[in-house]
Design goal:
The structure is a homodimer. Chain A is α+β, with helices and mostly antiparallel strands and about 300 residues long. The first copy, chain A, contains eight helices and 13 strands. Chains A and B meet through strand 11, strand 12 and helix 8 of A and strand 11, strand 12 and helix 8 of B.
């Protein structure tokens, strides 16, 4: 079983990690609030922000709120700024979902910000991803969703059975349960059995923003007959694929949404399908999944 | 179950990671061989090496083999140097075990070096650690070994059921099987069922050397009645401890060998006993186990 995962001619798993960790060779300025670096703004994006000096001060080496903005006004001020950036086309259309902006992942929010604007400021974001797996005899299968063709991000790509960004005000588990109901019509009692198993992290400049993402990973044994079906229109269809087929798709195609292979590679590592004896890149994969090479701290 | 692991007044799990990642505020010089940095030598240790200029060249900003040493002579030359360093008391007594010195963890060896001298040169080393666990109903237990009182390193401390450094010439799995037989009298057929589940990494200056260690972690379900007993005199006794008790010992005592809590914290994360909802330090733990804050690359 261990030997199935890697062949000489393959696209390496490491390539998926590299694809999630691309940065432009342009300088990034820290966005500093209350003496903490909350985000990293690319120089050309910082230049755009110079037009909004009533809200953001752009200095030579860092950004901060304009001196006139009080702590209690951060959230309102950012909302006004995001509206203007959206109107000017610098930020993707609003999704009307508020993200927590905090000193570190899952710490209490200093203020909240429209999800669509988070990456413009290079602010750390997080989400939950679920590996829904089925064991049949000694064979492992994964439930894989195909994203609807009308989704704004990565339409038609393959995805985990359940995945979603982390909105403000929910625990990770409650978010997972909510997403599992919406995306896969999974009963609450079943979703509650999902087990937190770690996290992966990456840092990617998408051209419109810097995604500094942490994905909290969950495993759920679905051997007992649950069949997912989509409830919110975000997923086109679900497929129960053998692990061999999932690995083949990761190695030979770009069919997966860009960040999903990281969650699955972590699954392969934790379940013993990869080892340092059979995978040359093992240490680099283990470290890369946690962003060891990141220029920007967690 | 998730709530049992952390109490407000506890020593944090993060402290164990910090304890494994202490460096002196003295500069370290890279030890460069064939244009690759193989090790990091503290300035005061580099000064000692100036006495052995026939083998090692110590420059202002790096160390290398003396120009007269050919590639094929690296291993012999280092062996001579280590003998002299051991005689002079700079390196602990030889253990007559050869470690691979490679461009990166588990890559082909450029040369081999006596295990006792690896940390003097700050060369990356690796080993295998096994979590031997038992499930009874919904309760989790771990087999914990107590190290013999006459061991050179950390006598009397608590350890994983099986753990050992990685000697030259064995696969990780074969080493695990060998150590499992020697340390716990575990049959080969049982040890072969151990599952590779990832790795943890740390970087620690012990005062006599810089340990840049990667521990490859394995899980083995021992629910079916195996009772370990020591075969090589390195372990005093084995104890089947509830996970609650293991966690209490990690939080309230220094009873574990310094690097073992990292392996167990990784186990807690992978098996869902910690989550970002119940553990404030979760992201820092996940990253810290992989050495995200290391000043020295993998």
């Amino acid at each position: 079983m261990e030997n199935m995962v890697r062949k000489e001619e393959d696209v390496t798993y490491l390539n998926h990690i590299r694809d999630c960790n691309r940065l432009e060779s342009i300088s990034y300025l820290p966005f500093i609030v209350q003496e903490t670096t909350l985000g990293w703004v690319r120089q050309d994006r910082a230049n755009i922000l110079k037009e909004y000096g009533d809200i953001i001060s752009v200095r030579d080496s860092f950004l901060s709120f304009a001196p006139s903005i009080a702590t209690s006004e951060y959230e309102t001020a950012i909302a006004v700024l995001v509206d203007r950036l959206t109107e000017a086309g610098h930020v993707a259309p609003k999704r009307n979902e508020l993200y927590d902006v905090a000193r570190r992942v899952r710490a209490p929010a200093l203020f909240r910000m429209e999800r669509a604007a988070v990456s413009f400021f290079g602010i750390a974001a997080c989400g939950v991803h679920l590996n829904g797996y089925v064991r049949k005899n000694d064979n492992m299968f994964l439930w894989i969703g195909k994203r609807a063709n009308d989704r704004r991000i990565e339409p038609g790509k393959l995805d985990n059975i359940v995945a979603g960004g982390q909105p403000s005000g929910l625990s990770l588990r409650d978010n997972l349960i909510k997403e599992a109901a919406e995306e896969a019509a999974m009963p609450r009692t079943l979703a509650m059995r999902a087990r937190p198993v770690g996290m992966v992290r990456y840092c990617l400049d998408t051209g419109t923003g810097l995604r500094r993402d942490t994905l909290f990973c969950y495993d759920l044994d679905l051997s007992e007959g649950f069949i997912p079906h989509n409830a919110d229109g975000e997923t086109d269809s679900f497929h129960l694929l053998s692990l061999e087929e999932v690995c083949r798709l990761m190695r030979e195609t770009k069919d997966f949404k860009f960040n999903v292979p990281l969650v699955i590679i972590d699954f392969l590592i934790r379940h013993g399908y990869l080892s340092a004896d059979n995978e040359t890149d093992y240490a680099a994969l283990c470290l890369g999944l946690h962003g060891v090479e990141h220029p920007f701290p967690a």
